[in-house]
Write a structure and sequence with these properties.
464 residues; alpha/beta; Amidase signature (AS) enzymes; two-stranded antiparallel sheet; 39% helix
Amino acid sequence: MNASQAELPDATALLQQMRKGAKSAETMMLEHLARLHETQPHYNGAVQIMAESALEQARAPRPGPLSGLPLSVKETFNIGGERVTLGSKRRRPSLPDTDALVVRRLRDAGAIVIARSNVPELAMAGETENPVFGRTNNAIDAQRVAGGSSGGEAVLVATGASAIGIGSDILGSIRIPAAFNGIVGFKPASHSVDKRGTWPQLGNAHLAGWLGIGPLVRSVRDARLVSNVIFEQPLPPPAQVNRLRLVIPDQFHMTIVDPANERALARAETVLTIAGMQVVHEPVPDVPLLFKHLQKMVVNDLEKPLLAELSPSGAPAFSVWRELLDRLLGRPTIYSGLFQLLLLAPLLRPDSGAVPGIVATIEAARRKYRGMLGSDGVMLLPTLGLLAPPHGRMNLDSLRPGVNGKMTPVTFANIMDMPSITLPSWADQDDATGLVPAIMLVCAPGAEGALLDAAAVLEAGITA
Protein backbone atom coordinates (compact mmCIF):
# COMPACT_ATOMS: atom_id res chain seq x y z
CA MET A 1 0.00 0.00 0.00
CA ASN A 2 1.11 3.56 -0.60
CA ALA A 3 2.83 4.43 2.68
CA SER A 4 1.16 7.79 3.15
CA GLN A 5 -2.29 6.36 2.48
CA ALA A 6 -1.65 3.41 4.79
CA GLU A 7 -1.10 5.79 7.67
CA LEU A 8 -4.36 7.66 7.19
CA PRO A 9 -7.24 6.71 9.49
CA ASP A 10 -10.68 6.50 7.96
CA ALA A 11 -13.51 8.80 9.03
CA THR A 12 -14.93 6.22 11.43
CA ALA A 13 -11.60 6.02 13.25
CA LEU A 14 -11.38 9.81 13.40
CA LEU A 15 -14.83 9.94 15.00
CA GLN A 16 -13.74 7.37 17.56
CA GLN A 17 -10.68 9.44 18.44
CA MET A 18 -12.82 12.52 19.02
CA ARG A 19 -15.42 10.67 21.06
CA LYS A 20 -12.72 9.20 23.31
CA GLY A 21 -11.18 12.64 23.81
CA ALA A 22 -7.92 11.60 22.15
CA LYS A 23 -8.26 14.44 19.68
CA SER A 24 -10.44 17.52 19.43
CA ALA A 25 -12.31 18.54 16.31
CA GLU A 26 -10.17 21.68 16.15
CA THR A 27 -6.92 19.73 16.30
CA MET A 28 -8.17 17.34 13.65
CA MET A 29 -9.19 20.24 11.41
CA LEU A 30 -5.79 21.86 11.80
CA GLU A 31 -4.14 18.59 10.77
CA HIS A 32 -6.32 18.28 7.67
CA LEU A 33 -5.74 21.91 6.70
CA ALA A 34 -2.00 21.43 7.07
CA ARG A 35 -2.15 18.35 4.85
CA LEU A 36 -4.32 20.19 2.35
CA HIS A 37 -1.91 23.12 2.10
CA GLU A 38 1.02 20.70 1.79
CA THR A 39 -0.51 18.56 -0.96
CA GLN A 40 -2.42 21.18 -2.97
CA PRO A 41 0.60 22.42 -4.98
CA HIS A 42 1.37 18.84 -6.09
CA TYR A 43 -2.12 17.51 -6.81
CA ASN A 44 -4.42 20.55 -7.24
CA GLY A 45 -7.47 18.75 -5.91
CA ALA A 46 -9.13 21.84 -4.41
CA VAL A 47 -10.51 24.92 -6.14
CA GLN A 48 -11.32 26.67 -2.86
CA ILE A 49 -9.99 26.12 0.65
CA MET A 50 -12.38 27.31 3.35
CA ALA A 51 -9.87 27.38 6.19
CA GLU A 52 -11.24 30.23 8.30
CA SER A 53 -14.86 29.06 8.38
CA ALA A 54 -13.83 25.42 8.84
CA LEU A 55 -11.69 26.23 11.86
CA GLU A 56 -14.37 28.42 13.39
CA GLN A 57 -16.93 25.60 13.10
CA ALA A 58 -14.45 23.01 14.41
CA ARG A 59 -14.09 24.93 17.67
CA ALA A 60 -17.75 24.19 18.42
CA PRO A 61 -18.81 21.41 16.02
CA ARG A 62 -22.46 20.66 15.46
CA PRO A 63 -23.44 17.36 17.13
CA GLY A 64 -24.39 14.47 14.90
CA PRO A 65 -23.11 11.24 13.31
CA LEU A 66 -20.44 13.15 11.35
CA SER A 67 -19.63 15.73 14.03
CA GLY A 68 -16.37 17.53 13.32
CA LEU A 69 -15.38 15.58 10.21
CA PRO A 70 -13.69 17.62 7.45
CA LEU A 71 -15.81 17.35 4.28
CA SER A 72 -14.90 18.24 0.71
CA VAL A 73 -17.62 18.98 -1.84
CA LYS A 74 -17.54 18.66 -5.61
CA GLU A 75 -17.65 22.09 -7.26
CA THR A 76 -20.83 21.11 -9.13
CA PHE A 77 -22.76 21.13 -5.82
CA ASN A 78 -24.22 24.38 -4.55
CA ILE A 79 -22.87 25.97 -1.39
CA GLY A 80 -24.77 29.06 -0.35
CA GLY A 81 -22.92 32.28 -1.22
CA GLU A 82 -20.16 30.52 -3.21
CA ARG A 83 -19.77 30.69 -6.99
CA VAL A 84 -20.25 27.59 -9.13
CA THR A 85 -18.07 27.81 -12.27
CA LEU A 86 -18.13 24.18 -13.50
CA GLY A 87 -14.55 24.92 -14.55
CA SER A 88 -15.73 26.95 -17.56
CA LYS A 89 -14.63 30.38 -18.75
CA ARG A 90 -17.43 30.58 -21.29
CA ARG A 91 -20.25 29.81 -18.86
CA ARG A 92 -21.23 32.59 -16.47
CA PRO A 93 -20.75 31.47 -12.85
CA SER A 94 -23.88 31.02 -10.75
CA LEU A 95 -24.16 32.22 -7.17
CA PRO A 96 -26.63 30.07 -5.22
CA ASP A 97 -28.30 31.34 -2.09
CA THR A 98 -28.52 27.96 -0.39
CA ASP A 99 -26.66 24.67 -0.12
CA ALA A 100 -27.54 21.67 -2.22
CA LEU A 101 -29.82 19.45 -0.15
CA VAL A 102 -27.18 16.73 0.16
CA VAL A 103 -24.64 19.28 1.44
CA ARG A 104 -27.17 20.56 3.97
CA ARG A 105 -27.77 17.03 5.24
CA LEU A 106 -24.06 16.46 5.68
CA ARG A 107 -23.67 19.75 7.54
CA ASP A 108 -26.71 19.05 9.68
CA ALA A 109 -25.02 15.76 10.65
CA GLY A 110 -21.97 17.73 11.87
CA ALA A 111 -19.60 17.57 8.88
CA ILE A 112 -17.60 20.74 8.19
CA VAL A 113 -16.81 21.86 4.63
CA ILE A 114 -13.05 22.28 4.33
CA ALA A 115 -12.74 22.59 0.54
CA ARG A 116 -14.49 22.48 -2.80
CA SER A 117 -12.95 20.16 -5.37
CA ASN A 118 -11.90 20.37 -9.00
CA VAL A 119 -13.84 18.90 -11.94
CA PRO A 120 -13.38 18.70 -15.72
CA GLU A 121 -15.16 21.50 -17.56
CA LEU A 122 -18.95 20.97 -17.22
CA ALA A 123 -18.05 17.67 -15.48
CA MET A 124 -17.92 15.95 -18.86
CA ALA A 125 -14.66 14.01 -19.11
CA GLY A 126 -12.75 11.15 -17.53
CA GLU A 127 -9.84 13.46 -16.69
CA THR A 128 -10.11 16.35 -14.24
CA GLU A 129 -8.85 19.47 -15.98
CA ASN A 130 -10.42 22.77 -16.99
CA PRO A 131 -9.49 26.28 -18.20
CA VAL A 132 -10.30 27.94 -14.86
CA PHE A 133 -8.49 25.83 -12.26
CA GLY A 134 -6.15 23.65 -14.31
CA ARG A 135 -5.35 19.97 -13.94
CA THR A 136 -5.70 17.64 -10.96
CA ASN A 137 -3.01 14.97 -10.61
CA ASN A 138 -3.37 11.38 -9.45
CA ALA A 139 -2.75 10.87 -5.71
CA ILE A 140 -0.51 7.83 -6.29
CA ASP A 141 1.42 9.08 -9.33
CA ALA A 142 1.17 12.78 -10.22
CA GLN A 143 2.11 12.01 -13.83
CA ARG A 144 -1.19 10.16 -14.26
CA VAL A 145 -4.84 11.15 -14.43
CA ALA A 146 -7.00 11.52 -11.35
CA GLY A 147 -10.07 10.39 -13.30
CA GLY A 148 -13.27 12.34 -13.65
CA SER A 149 -15.51 13.95 -13.09
CA SER A 150 -15.14 13.73 -9.28
CA GLY A 151 -11.35 13.67 -9.64
CA GLY A 152 -10.66 16.48 -7.19
CA GLU A 153 -12.79 14.76 -4.56
CA ALA A 154 -10.94 11.47 -4.92
CA VAL A 155 -7.55 13.15 -4.61
CA LEU A 156 -8.53 15.16 -1.52
CA VAL A 157 -9.76 12.01 0.24
CA ALA A 158 -6.87 9.84 -0.94
CA THR A 159 -4.24 12.32 0.26
CA GLY A 160 -5.95 12.84 3.61
CA ALA A 161 -6.83 16.48 2.94
CA SER A 162 -10.48 15.70 3.69
CA ALA A 163 -12.00 12.88 5.70
CA ILE A 164 -15.05 12.35 3.47
CA GLY A 165 -16.03 13.56 0.01
CA ILE A 166 -19.27 13.76 -1.92
CA GLY A 167 -19.55 13.39 -5.68
CA SER A 168 -21.88 12.51 -8.52
CA ASP A 169 -21.74 9.70 -11.08
CA ILE A 170 -23.50 9.53 -14.45
CA LEU A 171 -20.92 7.46 -16.38
CA GLY A 172 -18.50 6.40 -13.64
CA SER A 173 -17.70 9.83 -12.24
CA ILE A 174 -17.42 8.61 -8.62
CA ARG A 175 -16.02 5.16 -9.23
CA ILE A 176 -13.41 5.98 -11.90
CA PRO A 177 -11.60 8.57 -9.72
CA ALA A 178 -11.94 6.33 -6.66
CA ALA A 179 -10.45 3.42 -8.61
CA PHE A 180 -7.55 5.45 -9.98
CA ASN A 181 -6.65 6.97 -6.59
CA GLY A 182 -6.97 3.89 -4.38
CA ILE A 183 -10.08 4.74 -2.34
CA VAL A 184 -13.69 3.57 -2.01
CA GLY A 185 -16.41 5.10 -4.21
CA PHE A 186 -20.11 4.29 -3.85
CA LYS A 187 -22.67 5.16 -6.55
CA PRO A 188 -26.21 4.59 -5.26
CA ALA A 189 -29.30 4.27 -7.45
CA SER A 190 -30.52 7.51 -8.99
CA HIS A 191 -33.42 7.95 -6.55
CA SER A 192 -31.48 7.26 -3.34
CA VAL A 193 -30.14 10.79 -2.75
CA ASP A 194 -31.94 14.06 -3.49
CA LYS A 195 -30.20 15.95 -6.32
CA ARG A 196 -31.63 19.42 -5.69
CA GLY A 197 -28.92 22.06 -5.91
CA THR A 198 -26.49 19.90 -7.88
CA TRP A 199 -25.42 20.04 -11.52
CA PRO A 200 -26.58 18.83 -13.97
CA GLN A 201 -30.32 19.13 -13.42
CA LEU A 202 -31.74 16.76 -16.02
CA GLY A 203 -35.48 17.07 -15.40
CA ASN A 204 -37.36 14.32 -17.21
CA ALA A 205 -34.44 13.33 -19.42
CA HIS A 206 -33.73 9.60 -19.46
CA LEU A 207 -30.20 10.22 -18.15
CA ALA A 208 -31.66 11.49 -14.87
CA GLY A 209 -32.05 7.79 -14.08
CA TRP A 210 -28.33 7.19 -14.62
CA LEU A 211 -27.09 9.88 -12.25
CA GLY A 212 -26.34 9.01 -8.63
CA ILE A 213 -24.89 11.03 -5.75
CA GLY A 214 -22.66 9.27 -3.27
CA PRO A 215 -19.56 9.24 -1.07
CA LEU A 216 -15.85 9.00 -1.85
CA VAL A 217 -14.21 7.67 1.31
CA ARG A 218 -11.36 5.55 2.65
CA SER A 219 -13.36 2.50 3.77
CA VAL A 220 -16.58 0.59 3.25
CA ARG A 221 -17.72 1.40 6.79
CA ASP A 222 -17.32 5.09 5.94
CA ALA A 223 -19.48 4.57 2.86
CA ARG A 224 -22.21 3.14 5.06
CA LEU A 225 -21.78 5.96 7.60
CA VAL A 226 -22.19 8.72 5.01
CA SER A 227 -24.96 6.93 3.11
CA ASN A 228 -27.09 6.72 6.24
CA VAL A 229 -26.90 10.51 6.43
CA ILE A 230 -27.67 11.36 2.80
CA PHE A 231 -30.01 8.54 1.70
CA GLU A 232 -33.74 9.11 1.51
CA GLN A 233 -34.19 5.74 3.29
CA PRO A 234 -31.73 4.39 5.91
CA LEU A 235 -29.75 1.23 5.22
CA PRO A 236 -30.37 -1.99 7.16
CA PRO A 237 -27.81 -2.96 9.80
CA PRO A 238 -24.83 -5.08 8.68
CA ALA A 239 -25.48 -8.81 8.22
CA GLN A 240 -23.62 -12.01 7.31
CA VAL A 241 -22.83 -12.66 3.64
CA ASN A 242 -23.40 -16.42 3.62
CA ARG A 243 -27.02 -15.68 2.70
CA LEU A 244 -25.93 -13.92 -0.51
CA ARG A 245 -25.28 -15.06 -4.08
CA LEU A 246 -22.08 -13.99 -5.84
CA VAL A 247 -23.10 -13.45 -9.46
CA ILE A 248 -20.31 -13.98 -11.99
CA PRO A 249 -21.41 -12.52 -15.35
CA ASP A 250 -20.71 -14.71 -18.37
CA GLN A 251 -20.55 -13.35 -21.94
CA PHE A 252 -19.91 -9.87 -20.49
CA HIS A 253 -18.08 -7.88 -23.16
CA MET A 254 -15.09 -6.20 -21.51
CA THR A 255 -11.40 -5.67 -22.17
CA ILE A 256 -8.84 -5.94 -19.37
CA VAL A 257 -5.45 -4.62 -20.46
CA ASP A 258 -3.60 -4.52 -17.12
CA PRO A 259 -2.77 -7.90 -15.51
CA ALA A 260 -3.17 -6.40 -12.03
CA ASN A 261 -6.91 -6.09 -12.70
CA GLU A 262 -7.11 -9.76 -13.69
CA ARG A 263 -5.32 -10.81 -10.49
CA ALA A 264 -7.56 -8.62 -8.36
CA LEU A 265 -10.71 -10.03 -9.94
CA ALA A 266 -9.59 -13.62 -9.28
CA ARG A 267 -8.64 -12.76 -5.70
CA ALA A 268 -12.00 -11.10 -5.08
CA GLU A 269 -13.93 -14.16 -6.23
CA THR A 270 -11.83 -16.35 -3.93
CA VAL A 271 -12.31 -14.05 -0.92
CA LEU A 272 -16.08 -13.87 -1.33
CA THR A 273 -16.43 -17.61 -1.99
CA ILE A 274 -14.46 -18.46 1.15
CA ALA A 275 -16.72 -16.07 3.07
CA GLY A 276 -19.68 -18.29 2.17
CA MET A 277 -21.29 -16.51 -0.77
CA GLN A 278 -22.85 -18.92 -3.27
CA VAL A 279 -21.27 -18.55 -6.69
CA VAL A 280 -23.67 -18.52 -9.63
CA HIS A 281 -22.92 -17.77 -13.28
CA GLU A 282 -25.41 -15.72 -15.27
CA PRO A 283 -25.26 -14.65 -18.93
CA VAL A 284 -25.01 -10.94 -19.70
CA PRO A 285 -24.72 -11.00 -23.50
CA ASP A 286 -26.20 -7.64 -24.48
CA VAL A 287 -23.51 -5.30 -23.10
CA PRO A 288 -22.29 -4.18 -26.59
CA LEU A 289 -25.80 -3.12 -27.63
CA LEU A 290 -26.39 -1.34 -24.33
CA PHE A 291 -23.09 0.52 -24.65
CA LYS A 292 -24.02 1.75 -28.14
CA HIS A 293 -27.35 2.93 -26.72
CA LEU A 294 -25.43 4.66 -23.93
CA GLN A 295 -23.48 6.81 -26.37
CA LYS A 296 -26.62 7.75 -28.28
CA MET A 297 -28.57 8.68 -25.15
CA VAL A 298 -25.70 10.76 -23.74
CA VAL A 299 -25.67 12.85 -26.91
CA ASN A 300 -29.48 12.95 -27.12
CA ASP A 301 -29.91 14.22 -23.55
CA LEU A 302 -26.77 16.31 -23.01
CA GLU A 303 -25.65 17.89 -26.28
CA LYS A 304 -28.16 20.78 -26.28
CA PRO A 305 -27.82 21.56 -22.53
CA LEU A 306 -24.01 21.61 -22.83
CA LEU A 307 -24.12 23.93 -25.84
CA ALA A 308 -26.54 26.19 -23.95
CA GLU A 309 -24.16 26.38 -20.96
CA LEU A 310 -21.38 27.44 -23.33
CA SER A 311 -23.61 30.10 -24.97
CA PRO A 312 -24.78 32.38 -22.13
CA SER A 313 -27.21 35.20 -22.85
CA GLY A 314 -25.52 38.17 -24.47
CA ALA A 315 -22.49 36.19 -25.63
CA PRO A 316 -21.84 34.66 -29.06
CA ALA A 317 -23.33 31.19 -29.44
CA PHE A 318 -20.80 28.41 -29.10
CA SER A 319 -19.89 26.72 -32.38
CA VAL A 320 -17.89 23.50 -32.57
CA TRP A 321 -16.45 24.58 -35.90
CA ARG A 322 -15.46 28.02 -34.67
CA GLU A 323 -13.84 26.34 -31.68
CA LEU A 324 -11.97 24.02 -34.03
CA LEU A 325 -10.57 27.07 -35.85
CA ASP A 326 -9.69 28.72 -32.54
CA ARG A 327 -7.84 25.60 -31.47
CA LEU A 328 -5.90 25.50 -34.74
CA LEU A 329 -4.91 29.12 -34.06
CA GLY A 330 -3.81 28.24 -30.52
CA ARG A 331 -6.60 30.03 -28.68
CA PRO A 332 -9.02 27.35 -27.38
CA THR A 333 -11.98 28.49 -25.29
CA ILE A 334 -12.98 25.15 -23.74
CA TYR A 335 -11.22 22.09 -22.30
CA SER A 336 -10.02 19.56 -24.88
CA GLY A 337 -12.00 16.67 -23.34
CA LEU A 338 -15.27 18.60 -23.57
CA PHE A 339 -14.43 19.66 -27.13
CA GLN A 340 -13.75 16.04 -28.05
CA LEU A 341 -17.21 15.04 -26.77
CA LEU A 342 -18.97 17.83 -28.66
CA LEU A 343 -17.00 17.13 -31.84
CA LEU A 344 -18.09 13.48 -31.78
CA ALA A 345 -21.73 14.28 -30.95
CA PRO A 346 -23.00 14.47 -34.56
CA LEU A 347 -21.60 10.99 -35.22
CA LEU A 348 -23.46 9.54 -32.24
CA ARG A 349 -26.69 11.54 -32.29
CA PRO A 350 -29.72 9.23 -32.70
CA ASP A 351 -32.68 9.94 -34.94
CA SER A 352 -35.48 11.35 -32.83
CA GLY A 353 -37.74 8.50 -33.85
CA ALA A 354 -35.24 5.95 -32.54
CA VAL A 355 -35.14 7.27 -28.97
CA PRO A 356 -38.34 5.61 -27.65
CA GLY A 357 -37.10 2.23 -28.87
CA ILE A 358 -33.70 2.75 -27.24
CA VAL A 359 -35.34 3.70 -23.95
CA ALA A 360 -37.63 0.65 -24.14
CA THR A 361 -34.61 -1.62 -24.71
CA ILE A 362 -32.79 -0.15 -21.73
CA GLU A 363 -35.85 -0.44 -19.48
CA ALA A 364 -36.32 -4.09 -20.50
CA ALA A 365 -32.67 -4.79 -19.65
CA ARG A 366 -33.11 -3.11 -16.28
CA ARG A 367 -36.03 -5.37 -15.44
CA LYS A 368 -34.06 -8.40 -16.58
CA TYR A 369 -30.86 -7.78 -14.63
CA ARG A 370 -32.49 -6.38 -11.53
CA GLY A 371 -34.65 -9.50 -11.46
CA MET A 372 -31.54 -11.65 -11.93
CA LEU A 373 -29.85 -10.07 -8.90
CA GLY A 374 -32.95 -9.76 -6.72
CA SER A 375 -32.50 -8.93 -3.05
CA ASP A 376 -29.62 -11.36 -2.44
CA GLY A 377 -27.43 -11.16 -5.56
CA VAL A 378 -24.18 -9.19 -5.83
CA MET A 379 -22.41 -9.06 -9.19
CA LEU A 380 -18.61 -9.07 -9.35
CA LEU A 381 -16.80 -7.03 -12.02
CA PRO A 382 -13.59 -5.08 -12.47
CA THR A 383 -14.30 -1.37 -12.15
CA LEU A 384 -12.38 -0.70 -15.36
CA GLY A 385 -10.14 -2.62 -17.72
CA LEU A 386 -7.15 -0.36 -17.09
CA LEU A 387 -5.13 1.34 -14.39
CA ALA A 388 -4.81 5.12 -14.27
CA PRO A 389 -3.18 6.18 -17.57
CA PRO A 390 -0.80 9.11 -18.10
CA HIS A 391 -2.32 12.57 -18.55
CA GLY A 392 -4.13 12.92 -21.83
CA ARG A 393 -4.69 9.20 -22.39
CA MET A 394 -7.99 8.75 -20.54
CA ASN A 395 -9.91 11.02 -22.89
CA LEU A 396 -8.47 9.13 -25.84
CA ASP A 397 -9.47 5.84 -24.19
CA SER A 398 -12.97 6.86 -23.13
CA LEU A 399 -14.26 9.48 -25.59
CA ARG A 400 -14.52 7.62 -28.87
CA PRO A 401 -17.31 6.00 -30.90
CA GLY A 402 -17.96 2.28 -30.71
CA VAL A 403 -18.07 -0.28 -27.94
CA ASN A 404 -15.29 0.34 -25.42
CA GLY A 405 -14.60 -2.78 -23.40
CA LYS A 406 -12.33 -0.92 -20.98
CA MET A 407 -15.34 1.14 -19.86
CA THR A 408 -18.23 -1.31 -20.16
CA PRO A 409 -18.11 -2.58 -16.54
CA VAL A 410 -18.33 0.83 -14.85
CA THR A 411 -20.96 2.21 -17.25
CA PHE A 412 -23.12 -0.91 -17.05
CA ALA A 413 -24.23 0.07 -13.54
CA ASN A 414 -25.28 3.54 -14.78
CA ILE A 415 -27.28 2.27 -17.75
CA MET A 416 -29.04 -0.21 -15.46
CA ASP A 417 -29.38 2.37 -12.64
CA MET A 418 -28.01 -0.17 -10.17
CA PRO A 419 -26.03 0.66 -7.02
CA SER A 420 -22.33 -0.17 -7.25
CA ILE A 421 -19.22 0.27 -5.16
CA THR A 422 -15.56 0.22 -6.11
CA LEU A 423 -12.79 -0.97 -3.77
CA PRO A 424 -9.00 -0.78 -4.13
CA SER A 425 -7.22 -4.16 -4.17
CA TRP A 426 -3.97 -3.13 -2.48
CA ALA A 427 -2.96 -6.79 -2.31
CA ASP A 428 -2.58 -6.69 -6.11
CA GLN A 429 -0.76 -3.36 -6.40
CA ASP A 430 1.12 -3.12 -9.69
CA ASP A 431 4.86 -3.50 -9.04
CA ALA A 432 5.96 -1.43 -12.03
CA THR A 433 3.77 1.64 -11.45
CA GLY A 434 2.59 1.45 -7.84
CA LEU A 435 -0.98 1.83 -9.09
CA VAL A 436 -3.76 -0.19 -7.53
CA PRO A 437 -6.48 -2.15 -9.38
CA ALA A 438 -10.09 -1.77 -8.33
CA ILE A 439 -12.94 -4.23 -7.92
CA MET A 440 -16.61 -3.35 -8.34
CA LEU A 441 -19.69 -4.93 -6.81
CA VAL A 442 -23.17 -4.26 -8.21
CA CYS A 443 -26.65 -4.94 -6.80
CA ALA A 444 -30.28 -4.27 -7.61
CA PRO A 445 -31.89 -1.13 -6.14
CA GLY A 446 -33.08 -1.89 -2.62
CA ALA A 447 -30.24 -4.35 -1.94
CA GLU A 448 -27.67 -1.74 -0.92
CA GLY A 449 -27.32 -3.34 2.52
CA ALA A 450 -26.29 -6.64 0.93
CA LEU A 451 -23.89 -4.79 -1.36
CA LEU A 452 -22.10 -3.10 1.54
CA ASP A 453 -22.05 -6.36 3.53
CA ALA A 454 -20.25 -8.08 0.67
CA ALA A 455 -17.99 -5.07 0.13
CA ALA A 456 -16.88 -5.06 3.78
CA VAL A 457 -15.90 -8.74 3.58
CA LEU A 458 -14.10 -8.16 0.29
CA GLU A 459 -12.26 -5.13 1.66
CA ALA A 460 -10.82 -7.22 4.50
CA GLY A 461 -9.49 -9.76 2.02
CA ILE A 462 -7.88 -7.46 -0.56
CA THR A 463 -6.19 -4.90 1.69
CA ALA A 464 -2.53 -5.83 2.02
